[in-house]
């Protein structure tokens, strides 16, 4: 159940949230770092 929730959350993230993989993490704003962290958190929980 938990894994299915996070897999759905990752798919939603890919559709809705901006992609930041081409940007340097040191130049991101605080809000963009939060988005990046949330996407990473959701991705790691979907693979457990």
From TrEMBL:
Tell me where on the tree of life, at the top rank, the source sits.
Bacteria
According to UniProt, the name of this protein is: SsrA-binding protein
């Amino acid at each position: 159940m938990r894994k299915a929730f996070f897999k759905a959350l990752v798919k939603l993230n890919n559709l809705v949230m901006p992609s930041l993989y081409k940007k340097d993490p040191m130049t991101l704003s605080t809000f963009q770092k939060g988005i990046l962290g949330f996407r990473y958190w959701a991705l790691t929980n979907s693979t457990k």
